[in-house]
Amino acid sequence: MPRQNRSWLALITFCATTALVAALGLAILIASATVAFAIAQSLKLPSSHANQPAAPPAEQSFSGVVTDSHCGARHAKNSGKSPAECARACVRNGLQYTLIDGDKVYTLQGQAADLDRLAGQRTTIGGTLSGNTIQVNSIAAR
Q: Which of its termini does the chain have fewer beta carbons within 10 Å around, N or C?
């Protein structure tokens, strides 16, 4: 019987060793393929589109309330000022006009006279968005 136990032990050792060698070989193959893919991606030549200037951002339409960057949608109630007066006062003190649309807040640039006239009102603004800033091209009361 001892001879039979050694046969089983030899078979299990052989299978385990073969499985480990196969797993190691597969791991090396996958790692090599990953490195080769990464090198190929880093050496890619720029496409012909890279030399063309980027298209200017398209004008979009935004709706909301024109206010200031300090007070937002909640102006001080005990100040005795309307939301429009409060927004104008804050902008005169160096803050910027913003557009509040639900949870979205956009900083507004350009057309200060029109923004001043429509402060505190619901408006529709046409402009180009860059980050959270809208370059105002048109503004109309809603």
A: N
